[in-house]
Amino acid sequence: MQCDFLLALSIGTGSSILSALQDLFWLSKSKVEKQLQIISVLQWVLTFLVMGIACTLILMYILCTDCWAIAALYLAWLVFDWNTPKKGGRRSQWVRNWAIWRYFRDYFPIRLVKTHNLLTTRNYIFGYHPHGIMGLGAFCNFSTEATGVSQKFPGIRPYLATLAGNFRMPILRDYLMSGGICPVNRDSIDYILSKNGSGNAIIIVVGGAAESLNCTPGKNSVTLRNRKGFVKLALRHGADLVPVYSFGENEVYKQVIFEEGSWGRWVQKKFQKHIGFAPCIFHGRGLFSSNTWGLLPYSKPITTVVGEPITIPKIDNPSQKEVDFYHSVYVDSLIKLFDKYKGRFGLPETEVLEVN
Predict the structure, then answer these.
(1) Which DSSP symbol is given to 160?
(2) What is the dihedral of CA 13, 15, 18, 23, to 10 degrees?
(3) How many whole angstroms from its chain centre is CA 69?
(4) Mean pLDDT over all residues of the chain?
(5) Cα(277)–Cα(182) distance, rounded to whole angstroms?
(6) What digits encode the pLDDT tens for the residues 12-22?
(7) pLDDT tens per residue, range 242-275
(8) Across the strands, what pairs with 304?
(9) What InterPro entries does this protein map onto (predicted)?
(10) Do residues 290 and 298 make contact, with C-beta atoms less than 8 angstroms apart?
(11) Are 141 and 102 in contact (CB under 8 A)?
């Protein structure tokens, strides 16, 4: 019986893991599924928060042991492979299709809604809103196949862009690249949009760290008014802009919001300016009970709606007037997307998207 369980884990299909666990522990199907969902989400939360630092410390420790050659070989590989994240990365369809991501999806649950077809002869920049604490909807929908992004948008290769600093962390960088995640910097985006053919879609969480500081349940606001760099990139490459809104992204964690001018907000902005991320004081539910505090997000539905693409001309050196024009078109399109779908996903028709 134990051998059957280990075989199921090695094969990695959701049904085989579930069957093996039921045989091993005599638990009901629903309880086993819930525990697998919790484990799948917990591993990603820990990856997000500590994997980079932990792997760096472990590598440094191994260098000081008799196994130093293993760490030295990896570091040599790291030097050789340093620029791979800037050149589209090294995605793995096997990793993207892991059964664990389907349990991750079902924990909330997370859904991906397609509203329009995307042409494989074009490249795209998706603007993802809002950031939330961890961008859970962005990760699940575009860095895994759990919600069927490749089936819904055949021929389109999604690249979720995140902080470039993550790709300086050993092991973490390889884990992220396997899901099709790339650095959110100009070198990486230029390469994907100009030297990787067509059918590419870069997902940029436009509000970034600044937006995460204001995310809280019941609030639908985006940091967008002065975020125009992604529009300029789209114009330089002739990549169509696609507004994306994730209903429920702000509902899964509760956060302490520091007022502007407070010492807490000052510290957060200093981190954001010098390091690229802003530390947040947040909590979700506990590991064993939804009535206690912990790092697990609350089980709240997240529905990501991919809007209509905005055709963007290719302009090598766009003027500020041209950038402002297409930025305003994008903002209007995002607001229309929000207004059209808000009633379908639990918001009152009177709800207004706040654009800061």
Answers:
(1) E
(2) -110
(3) 34
(4) 90
(5) 16
(6) 555 666 565 55
(7) 999 999 999 999 988 887 878 888 887 888 777 7
(8) 112, 246
(9) DAGAT
(10) yes
(11) no
